[in-house]
């Protein structure tokens, strides 16, 4: 099995790879021999690269605003020119905004969908061109348990809608691009111990009651699922969503 989970000579592009779950995805792919390119909107390139260097990894950085199709086109072209294009794409860039539906700001609604849904499609479309040239490829889109069921007690309607759309987008693209030998799958994390949850710690007791494992997921657990789906060990898997949620969706 270990030989299937090596990525030597592979270029892995990770959007939103500068923190949270994306950070762990980047380090795990690097540990397995991949050249990892972080595509992110953050401007502090030197700081991001130094952060990974202190962990013993050499990663590369490409400025990219996933919500802007022109930025994605330019970033994808730069990655093709510098590194020879993407073999694997992981779309981990994502945001949420908690508001009651009746008071949901238009700006928040548009921003969440622009990054989570539009950004996933723009990146899939542009990096698919690299994979078609190479004759194969794999994409893993980070979805969420919010794609499957209404979460409570938080009111994050745009997030749930966007992630449900991302999951279905994976199915549609997987069906359309199988002729190009491109596999596309989604990973749906449950409540995961990242900095994004620190602002919502008051919900933690209720969350733990709803999770059969009665704990938060670790970012590494999400990254391992991504690694598996990207690997040749998952060569027969496309158009599906893998729940990594501690059993949350089973209840």
TrEMBL record:
Gene Ontology BP, a term: bile acid metabolic process
The keyword Cell inner membrane is assigned to this record: no
UniProt keyword Oxidoreductase present: yes
Keywords: Oxidoreductase
Cited InterPro entries: NAD(P)-bd_dom_sf (IPR036291), Sc_DH/Rdtase_CS (IPR020904), SDR_fam (IPR002347)
Example of a GO MF term: oxidoreductase activity, acting on the CH-OH group of donors, NAD or NADP as acceptor
Cited SUPFAM superfamilies: NAD(P)-binding Rossmann-fold domains (SSF51735)
Family statement: Belongs to the short-chain dehydrogenases/reductases (SDR) family.
Designated name of the protein: NAD(P)-dependent dehydrogenase, short-chain alcohol dehydrogenase family
